[in-house]
Amino acid sequence: MKRTGIIVLIIILAAVVVAIIVFDLGSTRTSSRKGNKYQLDINEYSKVDPALITYKEVRNYNLASDSLNAIAVKQDKIYLADGSFIRILNLNGEQLVRFGLPYETTCVEINGDGKILVGFKDRIGLCNDTGESIWITDMINESAYITAVAIKGTLIFASDAGNRLVQRFDISGKFLGNFEGKTGEDDSTGFIVPSGYFDLKVNQEGELWVVNPGRHSLENYTDEGDLRGSWENSSPAIEGFSGCCNPAHLTFLPDGSFVTSEKLIVRIKVYKPSGEFVSVVAAPDRFKENGIAPDLAVDENGNIYALDFDRKTIRVFAPK
To answer: How many angstroms separate the CA atoms of 202 and 223, rounded?
Structure first.
C-alpha cells in the first residue's frame, strides 16, 4: 500500500507540473497577454504639437540604392557614401561624379579645400573629388567600426563604435592616439555605445562634439580628448532623447545650433548651442514607423538634408 501511495503521489505531482507548464506557455502567447501597464507607449510620444514644427520639406531626391551609408554637403554639392562608391550630386539632385573605393564606406566628410575624408569599417582614407586616393590608413584593429569622421585643421577624428573610442590622426593619416571619453579615475564607463550609432562633428567654432549615445548626451572635447563640457536630456518626450542609444546623428546649423536625428521614435530636432530644445524639423509621422534614423547634413543657407534610408531618398527641409 505504501508503495502504491508513493506512485499515486508521483503521478499527481507530475500532472500538476504539466498543468503549470501548459498554463505558463499559454500565458506567454501574445493573444493571451493582458499587457504590461509599465511598458512605454511609443505612440504617445510620436505625436508632436504642430506649433513646434518650424521647418517644411521643400524637395527630395530619389536615389534608388540599397547601399546608402552617409551624406555630407559642402559648397553647393551633395556627397554620398554609397556602398563602395562616392557619389557627388548638385543641389538639383543631378549626379556629377561617381567613383569607386577599395572598401565599403561607412561615413564621409569634406574639408575646406574639397578633399573627401572617408570612413571604412576598420580604417579611414582621404581622396580628391575625382576619386584619386591620397592615402588610406592601415587597419586599426579587428574590433574597429568607424561610424563618423571629422576634420579640424590638420587633425582628423574618427568615432569607433567597435572599440568605443575616438581615434585621432593627422592630415597625412598618421595615427596620433585615441580617447575613451572618461572624465577621471572615478569614471569607469566613458563612451557608452550599445549599437552602431556613435557620431561626432566639428562645429563652425572648431569645437569637437561627440555623441555619447548610451548617456543621451553630447560632449565637447579638446583636441587631446579632455572633456570641456556637455549636456544631456534623457526623456522620451519631444525635448529629450530615449532608447538605448540616441541621438543617432548630429550636425550643426550655421549659427552653431545642434541638429539631431533619433532612432526608434524617428524624428529630427534643433537645439540651441547651449543645449536647450528649440523646435522640430520633422516629426515621427514623416518617417517609417520604427525606421532607421536619417543621417544629416546642412548647407551654407541652413537647409537641412536628411538621408532617409528607408525611402532611399534625400529629403531637404527649410525653415518655414
So the answer is: 11
The helix/strand count (H/E) of the chain reads as 2, 24
Question: What pLDDT sits at residue 225?
Answer: 96
- Judge whether 311 lies within some domain: yes
Q: Is 56 helix (H, G, I), strand (E, B) or coil?
A: strand
To the nearest 10°, report the CA torsion of 116, 173, 209, 58: 10
Q: State the DSSP H helix or E strand holding residue 282, giving kind and residue range, or none if neither.
A: strand 277-282
- 3-class SS string, 80-124: EEECCEEEEEECCCCEEEEEECCCCEEEEEECCCCCEEEEECCCE
Instruction: Please state, in angstroms and as integers, the Cα–Cα distance from residue 202 to each residue in 24, 55, 149, 150, following that order.
Output: 54, 24, 9, 6
Q: Which domain holds residue 205?
A: 42-319
What is the pLDDT at residue 41?
Answer: 56
Q: What is the pLDDT of residues 64-97, one digit of tens each?
A: 899 999 999 999 999 999 999 999 999 999 999 9
Q: Based on the structure, what is the number of domains in the chain?
A: 1
Residue 153's domain is classified under what CATH number?
A: 2.120.10.30
Please compute Rg for the chain using Cα positions.
Answer: 24
Answer yes or no: is 128 within a domain: yes
Amino acid 189: pLDDT: 84
Residues 6+ apart with CB under 8 A from 287: 266, 267, 294, 308, 310
In a domain, 86, yes or no: yes
Q: Answer whether residue 288 is part of any domain.
A: yes
